[in-house]
Amino acid sequence: MAQKAPKRKNLVILIHGLHQTTWMMRPLAKRLQAQGFATHQYSYRSMRDGIKTNSQRLHEWLSANHNPDQPIDLVGHSLGGLIIRDFLANYPKWQIGRCVTLGTPHVGSVCADYVWRLSPLIVGRSYADALDGTATSCPEHIHIGVIAGDKPRGLGQPFLQYHNRKLNKESESAATENCAHDGTVYVSETRLDCANDHIVLPVTHTGMLVDKEVARQVIYFLENGEFER
Question: Which residue intervals define the domain DUF676 in the entry (predicted)?
Fold first, then answer.
C-alpha cells in the first residue's frame, strides 16, 4: 500500500518589529525551516513609513513572488503583529492559514505613548493607526495565536516602572493584575478578542525571538491551531 504524501506546509512570512531588521527574525526562521517550513523575512521601514504603507508593500511583494492559490502563514513580532492585522483586513485576496503574534501590543502600547509624548521621532510613523491602539480589527475567520512575555527586562522598563507606580497609587489590586510585562509591552496589552489562543512565557520582548520554547510554540500553533500546554 502506497504511503500518503506528507501535507505541504505553508510559506511562513516573518515580520520584524520597530527599530529592527530582518536579521532579528533569522533564529526563528531557521527553527521553522528545520521543521520543513519555507520562510520569507519581510523587510520594511518601521520609522519612515506608516503601517498601511508597510502592509501594502507586503501585498506587493506577495503579488510579485507568490501564487495566491497557495496559503501563507504569518508570524509577527511586536509592531509586525499590527502589520499582520492591517494586511489581513485590507488584502483579503490572500489565503491565510494561521497567524502568530509575539509581544504585539494589540490594544496599544503604554511605553509607546510615553515615548511619543517625549520624542515622537523615536517611534516615527509607526505610532498612528498601530502602536496608539487603533489598529484595524481582524477578520473573524482567521486563526490567530498570541504569545506574550512576562520577564520584565528591556529598554521600556523605566517607563513601565513609572506607570506601575501610578497604578499602585490608584489601586493595589489593579496594579497587581496589570503590571506584568516583558520589558516593553504589558501582557494585558497583548490580549486580542479575536485570537484563538493566548499564552504567556517567561521571556523578554526581544529575547522571545531567540527562545527555543517560543519557537516550539509557534510551530505547534501553525500545525495545530492552538498552543501546547
Answer: 7-111
Summarised one tens digit per residue, pLDDT across range 33-64 is 999 999 999 999 998 999 999 999 999 999 99
- Which amino acid does the sequence have at 142? I
Cβ-contact 24, 52 below 8 angstroms: no
CB atoms closer than 10 angstroms to residue 139: 13
DSSP output for 89-154: HH-TTS-EEEEEEES--TT--HHHHHHHHH-GGGTGGGIIIIITTTPPPPPTTSEEEEEEE----S
| Tens digit of each residue's pLDDT (9 = 90 or more) over 122-181 | 899 999 999 999 998 888 889 999 999 999 988 777 778 877 777 766 665 554 557 899
Q: For residues 47 and 125, what is the distance between their CA atoms, to the nearest angstrom? A: 6
Count of alpha carbons within 13 Å of 51, Cβ hemisphere only? Answer: 28
Q: Is 127 exposed, middle or buried (0-12, 13-18, 19+ CB in 10 A)?
A: buried
Q: What span, in angstroms and rounded, lies between the C-alpha atoms of 62 and 60?
A: 5
The answer for residues whose C-beta is within 8 angstroms of residue 53's C-beta and 6 or more apart is 125
Radius of gyration of the chain from its Cα atoms, rounded to whole angstroms = 18
Instruction: Provide the pairing of β-strand 39-42 with 96-102.
Output: unpaired
Residues 10/71, Cβ–Cβ less than 8 Å: yes
Cα separation, 92 vs 52, in Å, equals 14
> CB–CB of 214/147 below 8 Å?
yes
At residue 58, what is the residue type? L
